[in-house]
Design brief:
Layout lengths: L2 H26 L1 H40 L4 E4 L4 H23 L1 H5 L1 H5 L22 H11 L3 E3 H29 L1 H9 L12
Helix pairs in contact: 1-2, 1-7, 2-7, 3-6, 6-7, 7-8
């Protein structure tokens, strides 16, 4: 395949990733949650987070399959021993995301807390600014981005997939922050002014 054909396939994967991110964001909105609760009541709301996660995982599979099955081209492959170093960086990124998720509440994020305790709808109504949240506003996304971009091997399809998820993390993070401003008001605005979004030290934008 020539370069333009590979580029066209990469654009298709980028577009598919954008559709996935859009659906994911819409389902995460308060409007979607309220709609489910209006249809199925409180019990439906308790199951929503778990169902949301299951749907997100299942919908991710054909997207990944698309990147694997479609024709592709190699951008780079880091030789040994440096590929091992990048793999270590990837593991650090995954660990960062896991620690941030634990700080946020793994049970709640997975939807288990809502099922085990009928009184839990959301985490304690307190803005999280300690731990990893002192350095960035979205440490889970930061860890995920490190994992994605520290790959020791990169293809055009993989690049399109990573670019799509990077844009989703940024746009989705902005949408999430609108909800946080509605919930915490000036407290979150002040936190946003002093804390970067994804990259420590870049306070104005990321």
């Amino acid at each position: 395949m020539n370069f333009w054909q590979i580029l066209g396939i990469s654009f298709l994967i980028l577009l598919a990733t954008g559709v996935y991110g859009l659906v994911h964001s819409l389902l995460a909105s308060r409007q979607a949650k309220k709609l489910v609760e209006s249809w199925w009541g409180y019990e439906g709301a308790r199951w929503y987070r778990m169902g949301y996660n299951i749907f997100a995982f299942i919908a991710l599979l054909p997207l990944l399959a698309l990147a694997i099955i479609l024709p592709d081209g190699l951008i780079y492959m880091i030789p040994s021993p440096w590929n091992g170093l990048l793999t270590l960086v990837q593991l650090m990124g995954a660990g960062l995301a896991f620690v941030a998720a634990r700080q946020t509440g793994l049970g709640y994020l997975a939807g288990l807390s809502q099922l085990m305790d009928r009184n839990i709808r959301q985490p304690q109504n307190k803005l999280e600014t300690d731990g990893l949240y002192r350095f960035v506003r979205h440490p889970i996304y930061t860890g995920a981005l490190i994992f994605l971009w520290a790959a020791p091997q990169l293809t055009w399809n993989g690049f399109a997939l990573r670019l799509g998820f990077t844009l989703y993390f940024i746009i989705g993070g902005m949408a999430e922050e609108k909800r946080l401003v509605e919930e915490f008001g000036d407290e979150y605005r002040a936190y946003r002014l002093r804390t970067p979004m994804l990259i420590p030290g870049m306070k104005k934008h990321l």
